[in-house]
Amino acid sequence: MSISDRIEEERDFALNVLLHVGALTTCMIHEDDIYEGNGDLEGAYKYANNQFSKKDNPMSFEDRREMTDIIKSVYEEYCGCDSCPSCESNFRE
Ligand SMILES: [Zn+2]
Questions:
Q1: What pLDDT, in 10s, does the model give residues 54-88?
Q2: Which residues have CB atoms below 5 A from the ion given as ligand 1?
Q3: Do 47 and 3 touch, CB atoms closer than 8 A?
Q4: What is the pLDDT of residues 8-42, one digit of tens each?
Q5: Residue 92 pLDDT greater than 80, yes or no
Q6: How many angstroms separate the alpha carbon of residue 64 from the centre of ligand 1?
Q7: Distance, CA of 26 to CA of 81 (rounded, Å)
Q8: Which of 61, 64, 71, 93 has its CA 20 to 30 A from that of 87?
Q9: Which domains, and CATH codes, for the chain?
Q10: Dist. CA 32 → ligand 1 center (Å)
Q11: Measured distance CA(11)–CA(74) in Å, rounded
């Protein structure tokens, strides 16, 4: 597996964790639009650490620190936007 594939998988994992705990959310209409949910980053760390323990580091993270760093950076890409960008632009038109 190439390094970029690995990063891609780790980012997918992080995104799934964030969506699972509701820290980020998706639009009911635009499933691909991700934006800020309850912002529960701590909950996301906790859930991911749980997965890490249970599945014995499924995504081949170097360590838990790397995992939480990726979760944080993925979260920061989407936070600051508290409603669906596509719905907002429809609303404005
Ligand atoms: Zn929408």
A1: 887 767 788 999 999 999 999 999 978 888 989 98
A2: 27, 29-30, 84, 86-87
A3: no
A4: 999 999 999 999 999 999 999 998 999 999 999 99
A5: no
A6: 33
A7: 12
A8: 71
A9: 3-92 (1.10.10.1920)
A10: 9
A11: 7
